[in-house]
Amino acid sequence: MEDLISVVIPIYNVEKYLHYAIESLNRQTYKNFEVILVNDGSTDGSGKLCDEYSEKYDNVRVYHKSNGGLSDARNFGVQKSCGDFITFLDPDDFLDEYALELMYNLQKKYSADAVCTKMRDVYDYEDYKKESRTKKAYSIDDTDVYVCDNIKALELMYYNQIATVSACAKLVKKEFLLATPFPKGKIYEDLYVIAELLKDMNKIVITPLETYNYYQRQGSIVNSKFSKKQYDFFEAIDNNKKIVSMYFDNNKNLVSAINAKEKMGAFSLLSKANQSSKEDVNIIRKIISKNFFDILKNKNISSIFKVKYCMLLFSPRIFYGTKNLLIKRSK
């Protein structure tokens, strides 16, 4: 008997997009799954749409709650789920039709605590209609799979190489998510909990196959303008440092990987801050100037990034002036 998978979808004002997520679930080749829709205080027609889906499909359950944010909605969905394994799907994203089957088969084959696939960015929902990815593309062998302990898996996620820190595109045993809830009211909540989530895991399976379609929607948290909430990123980094110190004995490779994650992640924040707040640019520069030589010695970081990092610390004006000039010349 196949195990039940719970797909948790947090809902907030996504009436225009939710049907793509639901339709992609209806296309799944793996059939033993339930869908937990958590309507997190939506003010548009999302709640009504969720009710319609729960009436139409036997495996869809909907819960309505007051607004508590993404983390709170995910935690609520985990609590209400019945499956032994959980995967998260954001309501404006969609899965390839073999996603659940692939992750489940890998979990069974290797008795894994978690299975990690990759996300692909999509900018047009027309991508959903393309049939270029066939089942043959998911017929993998051992050369396509990395079977890791929690230390190596974390290292790969921090470097954003064949795995990411995202809660999505993963299949995780429910017990670990129950023990490690997402921090309420924070952004970068996935990064915040990743070390704590993995600390008690023995085996993580990672494949570079992309099964999750991540829609780049204007107005989403990731694509929003810079605000003070962006400093949650550094709080998330600090929490990882604390967990690595407490449970991983400050593993040398993990410490270097976290430092790299901090510097590389800060660059996207700086690009946003540079458009609105020079004060925030200087604050972030000061934060990422720490462990300077560790970055320069890190063989997992490209020489190009090291040059950009040094230039930015020396002079943001020169760095962004050079960057804008190169962009203009490339057009």
Number of helices: 13
Shape: globular
Mean pLDDT: 91
Report the β-strand fraction as a percent range.
Answer: 15-25%
Give the termini separation: 56 Å
Q: Segments where pLDDT lies below 50 for 5+ residues? A: none
Strand count, sense and closure of the main sheet? 9 strands, mixed
User: What structural class do the secondary elements suggest?
Assistant: alpha/beta
What's the helix-strand series?
EHEHEHEEHEEHEHHEHHHHHH
Task: Please tell me how large the radius of gyration is.
Answer: 20 Å
Q: What is the share of helical residues?
A: 40-55%
Number of strands: 9
Topology:
Layout (H helix, E strand, L loop, with lengths): L4 E7 L6 H9 L6 E8 L5 H11 L3 E6 L4 H11 L4 E4 L5 E2 L3 H12 L3 E9 L23 E3 L1 H9 L11 E4 H6 L9 H10 L5 E12 L16 H16 L4 H22 L4 H11 L3 H6 L5 H12 L1 H15 L1
